[in-house]
Known about the structure:
Radius of gyration: 19 Å
Strand content: 15-25%
CATH class of the domain at 4-197 and 247-280 and 316-330: Alpha Beta
Order of helices and strands: EHEHEHEHHEHEEHEEEHEEHEEHH
Helix content: 25-40%
Strand order of the largest sheet: 3-2-1-4-5-6-11
Number of helices: 11
Shape: globular
CATH architecture of the domain at 4-197 and 247-280 and 316-330: 3-Layer(aba) Sandwich
Structural class: alpha/beta
Bound molecules: uridine-diphosphate-N-acetylglucosamine
Amino acid sequence: xxxxxxxxxxxxxxxxxxxxxxxxELLKNGYSVVAVDNFSNSKPGKDQTMPESLKxxxxxxxxxxxxxxxxxxxxxxxxxxxxxxxxxxxxxxxALKAVGESCRVPLDYYRNNVGGSVNLLExxxxxxxxxxxxxxxATVYGVPLYLPIDETHPVGSTCTNPxxxxxxxxxxxxxDVSKSEKGWSVILLRYFNPVGAHESGIIGEDPHGVPNNxxxxxxxxxxxxxxxxxxxxxxxxxxxxxxxxxxxxxMDLAEGHVSAVKEILTAEFKGCxxxxxxxxxxxxxxxxxxxxEDACSVKIPYIIVDRRDGDVDSIxxxxxxxxxxxxxxxxxxxxxxxxxTWRWQSKNPIGFRT
Length: 354
Ligand code: UD1
């Protein structure tokens, strides 16, 4: 048994897209993983015990993990898990994440995302587990004042929707907690736009209903589940008028989580630090469509429609801090993001239900 195998990591929202890919990387790096999920955006396996995504993660890793169906709003169930295990660190993914839905039912978002996080932190405090890696988002930056955007850019004031504000509020809560007593270590990972899938095509993103985000929408058009893509606006101040984003391969993101876990487990790491996880390069919506068509030899029919509320022209990351402090850098190209998305989608046209 190596040292990592004795290190138990508690992962919330483990069945989801970024959670499942990150667990795979944690297992491959020798860590023991205990994951929870409430199945709000994932599918239970046939025997109802382990989510299908995590069953597949176990196969890919050649290693088992422990899973409990738990909602973070149920504090007693959380406590029971902390009684059974000795965690070195928590990686907190669990959250509702649909921007449009968050505008319709903001209180659901505040209760679930903010309330769930407060419960988790209280249980961590009670059991003296004080290291947490938090799944945040570039959405906390709101409308960029400059590009590329670095971690010192103001956060919160121009967030365009309740979902984004939950991420911002949780970051603020974590900062306050880390200042309130000794021993807390907090890493905030601000993801840009995660896309792609594990290169095997065995796990990937499986959104409920019609996808809100660009890449899953494109891949569902490619596979014939949706008729055509709607491009939200072509009059932005960008290279071709369509929105520009920093798309990052989910496996790069997963590796970023392992780097963050390694960092937070060092004796030197203290307090609270935010890191951007992106590639540092922006691509427009039309560039992504073209890259997908080239990489996958499929045609993506699309129409231009009005702008979507809350969208910004361009946003891409300054990723130098993560490289300097975590020793992490994204490696995978847009071509690979498209190829891997397509491998997953074409092998699993209806996601984990196949
Ligand atoms: C959104 C969220 C972000 C979240 C991220 C997850 C905001 C404002 N955005 O980012 O918080 O972390 O998803 O990946 O909070 N587009 C189309 N047609 C579509 C879908 C998207 O043209 O059907 C365009 C959008 O207008 C945008 C680009 O594609 O220019 C990317 O959109 P999307 O994938 O939804 O990501 P973001 O809005 O950047």
